[in-house]
Amino acid sequence: MSRKILYLNANPKTENESFGLQVGRSFLDAYKIKNVDHEIIELNLFDTEVPFLNASVFEAFGEIQNGASFEDLTEAQQIQLKKLNDLQEQFMDVDAYVIVNPMWNFSIPPVLKAYVDVILQVGKTFQYTEDGPKGLLKNKKALHIQASGGIYSNGDAKEFEFGHRYLKTVMAFIGIFDFELLPVEGIAMGQSEVSEILSLAQTKAKEIAGSF
């Protein structure tokens, strides 16, 4: 059965400049070989206009909740809500996700946070119940490839890692509990080890692709 994979690139660099994206490409190449009939959608968030949830958006939400139709909104609000909806529908329509980003200041790039704000939509990816919030996305999985200059997946610096922990919380909140981390880390701690770090991560990416 054909599947759809959404590959989220949250790095402003090119693949030649980014260790994380090189590992991501190794995953995609290996995945395509084994799953020739599957569709892979590549979304570069730095080349995508991801709407911020600003005053105009919340005003539009309020008007709709009070009975206004989409056509009653201003043209600018209609454009914003359409972009929000398109990104939400694309996210919900796939079977699995690969998220690739660098660690910036212990967390994720702002554009990825803005994207999370878009996809966390009540009634679409989660809902409130008498027992609390409940994720609506089922039978999906995700891989997180995160590159960092230091080592944060274990050791003394682990408590400073907020990127993967945040995304793992987000995914669980919307119902995605199968969420694996592939760190590409320590790349700034010694130039002699960089090629080995990259090679090991690419090998791991290919292994994951075999069963993803």
TrEMBL record:
EC category name: oxidoreductase
Cofactor(s) needed: FMN
Pfam families: Flavodoxin_2
Cofactor mode of binding and number, as noted: Binds 1 FMN per subunit.
Binding site for FMN: 103-106
Keywords: Flavoprotein, FMN, NAD, Oxidoreductase
Top-rank lineage group of the source organism: Bacteria
EC annotation from Swiss-Prot or TrEMBL: 1.6.5.-, 1.7.1.17
Gene Ontology molecular function terms on file: electron transfer activity; FMN binding; oxidoreductase activity, acting on NAD(P)H as acceptor; oxidoreductase activity, acting on NAD(P)H, quinone or similar compound as acceptor
Gene3D superfamilies: 3.40.50.360
Catalytic activity: 2 a quinone + NADH + H(+) = 2 a 1,4-benzosemiquinone + NAD(+); N,N-dimethyl-1,4-phenylenediamine + anthranilate + 2 NAD(+) = 2-(4-dimethylaminophenyl)diazenylbenzoate + 2 NADH + 2 H(+)
Keyword Flavoprotein: yes
Domain Flavodoxin-like fold residues, every copy: 4-206
Keyword Flavoprotein among record annotations: yes
Quaternary structure annotation from Swiss-Prot or TrEMBL: Homodimer.
Homology family: Belongs to the azoreductase type 1 family.
Biological function: Quinone reductase that provides resistance to thiol-specific stress caused by electrophilic quinones.
The protein's name in its UniProt record: FMN dependent NADH:quinone oxidoreductase
Biological source species: Ancylomarina longa
Organism placement in taxonomy: Bacteria, Pseudomonadati, Bacteroidota, Bacteroidia, Marinilabiliales
